[in-house]
Amino acid sequence: MMVTVKEVTSRSGLRTFVDFPNRLYRGNEFYVPQLVSADMDTLTPGKNKAFEVCEGKYWMAYDEKGRVVGRVAGIVNHRYNAKVGEKICRFSWIDFIDDRQVSGALLDQVAAYAREMGMNKLEGPMGFLEFDVTGILVEGFDQLPTAYGKYNAPYYEDHLLAYGFEKGTDYVEYLVSVPEVIPERYHRLSDIVAKKQKVHEAPIRKRSEILPYAEGIFKCMNACYSALHGFSELSPGQCEDLKKQFFSFLNPDFTSIILDENGEVVAFGICIPSLARALQKTGGRLFPFGFVHVLRALRKNDTLDALLIAISPEYQSKGLNAMIFDKLAQGIQKNGVHFVESTRELADNVSVQNLWGYFEYKQNKRARTYIKNI
What we know:
It contains twelve helices and 14 strands.
């Protein structure tokens, strides 16, 4: 196949870039379309505060008939590179047909961009920030993706390994079955921890009461996630972006915020109703009627995605996960939820996985990043 790779330089080209996987996987029962409008904003400087510390370019691959057969983004996160003392170029938003000429041409382009930027290593798939989709799916091809996940065909890993990439970091997801009755001993344990550690649950009864804790949530997140692979501290602008993206969807029943004696956020857990089925119905577009499916999923759903969970370093291993669990369990029972899915988390992040030890759970998906010196 004759493959031509071209840089995306126009708004219409970016829309084609964003929409490509929606066409590639049309009809696949496990693919969940990404919202075109959201991806457009994420990839546009001026609309995504990640560009305060990142820069990048995007390319599409075309066959001899001019049809799009692949896409990829090259990203340099200068803040993260300074933090770890390395020269890494990330590749992301990578999708392609099952043809190694296509994947090879796309990765060649990213490697050339990396050298141009003075980088000496490729790593990915990784987005601008930790909250973009990380890794490609390597297990769980018969499962729907969660909030920070994305479906891809099984052949992706073979292409990356054939190009010379090596295994980087693994991320796992768990499917948690919620019992109809939560044993009372879990609530008693939560009370014991609260008294011993002198902390308490923030009294939130409606969505508007969550917003005042946003700054504390992001401060806690920066402290908790600072040592995690791929994470760089969130700037005030990036925090604003995340607030706009997620806080309007939050339900107090699925939100736990733990405060210390001074009212400072020291831990939190946030879940949202699964939007996978709803997004499949939207086809990647909220208008004219796609938003109706999303609203219905937010109001009534038997499955939650565990969006974010963090405990400040000084409170880790002190039982605060029991308090988060207790609050979320009450909301889960109240709303008739039967399943909770953890979003992609580092395979060795035992502290987060311990949260689900109260329930019956199993690993149902695994994603992986890859690295290569250039």
